[in-house]
Amino acid sequence: MTPSTPQRLGVLHRLLLSLPAETAHKAGITALAIAEALAPGRLLLERHAPPREGRLEQTLLGLLFPNPVGLAAGFDKDGEIVSATARLGFGWVEVGTVTPSPQPGNPGPRLFRHRESRSLENCMGFNNAGGRALLKRLKKAYPASVPLGVNLGKNKDTPNAEAQSDYLGLLKIFSRACDYFVINVSSPNTPGLRDLQDRGFLADLLAASRDLTDRPVFVKLSPDLEARAVVRLVRGAVEDGAAGVILTNTTARHSLLPAAHGVGGLSGEVLKERSFELLETVAREVYGQCVLVSVGGIDSGSEVYRRLRAGASLVQLYTALVYHGLRLLLSINNELEELMVRDGFSSLREVVGVDRR
């Protein structure tokens, strides 16, 4: 590995940012897949990975997480780069959102950068190759070197009255091809999907899921619900068997970003404080009763530290990768460790929820 390698990565990152957002995303997926397929490429990825052992490790739900920073759903919808992203240093990886049948998603353009605010706006619409195609890939990638999750959605043309069958069908398909599941009822890009953020629907689905899988099941919720509604849904989900909740999906509050196109969901910096606010609200009520995952605007070790102290055991990111590139993971984990040492913490377990105790 030559000293010029980081500079070459920087050039690639700048090139991707010069392309239209969705084109850049596809090119990035292809580049990571190629890197994973070649020995020099694998070394290149590992160059930017944080250490696999140490104070950032933790075991949750019987799974060993080498660090708390995960890749959020939406980045690798079709499971094309599971090994590459694990090698890059993510502590856990989530693929999808997957639907039972393939679907093209919404018409383009459907992904927009807002560089001034380090945010994204997407109205992708669960574009993916379908459950069978993802299963074929995961059979080669699973078990992965880090915990692997599958984010589940319903097809656009499936009526809400029949949505449970889509989720249960996917649970059955992937019951031996991943480490955990996420029930996604909170994307703003499938008409009517957010109506499924309902205690009755989730209770029935979680009850039925117990007969299909022994994997932990999470529920992912919207930042656009009132705080009291989120707390009620989280309490209900935990009572009905959810292992945890992911807070939050993208926001449809386009007024938060004056330059928004007014379509789909916003992620990144624009979502940071709303995401943290809901985490704190929920953690005050259910901390210690389930695994809390925080996502939305996370772009530094100090922000990860803030989420962990507030009660999250794990975090996820996506948008920050677009703006900061591959070196972000190593930077985040190094800063996180420095903050732990500064405050006298020897393990992540001591940090999680310290502001709740």
Task: Please provide a written account of the structure.
The chain has helices at 5-18, 21-37, 39-47, 82-88, 131-141, 163-173, 199-209, 227-239, 272-286, 301-310, 319-324, 328-342, 348-351, and strands at residues 58-60, 63-65, 69-71, 92-98, 111-114, 119-122, 148-152, 180-184, 217-221, 244-247, 265-268, 291-295, 314-317. With 357 residues, the chain is an alpha/beta fold. It has a single domain, classed as TIM Barrel. The strands form three sheets. It has an eight-stranded parallel β-barrel, surrounded by five helices. Strands 5-6-11 form a three-stranded antiparallel β-sheet, with no helix packed on it. A two-stranded antiparallel sheet has the order 1-2. The protein is globular, with a radius of gyration of 19 Å. The N and C termini lie far apart (46 Å).
Low-confidence stretches: 1-9
What is the assigned CATH homologous superfamily? Aldolase class I
Domains, number: 1
Q: Within the largest sheet, what's the order of strands?
A: 3-4-7-8-9-10-12-13
**CATH-derived topology:** TIM Barrel
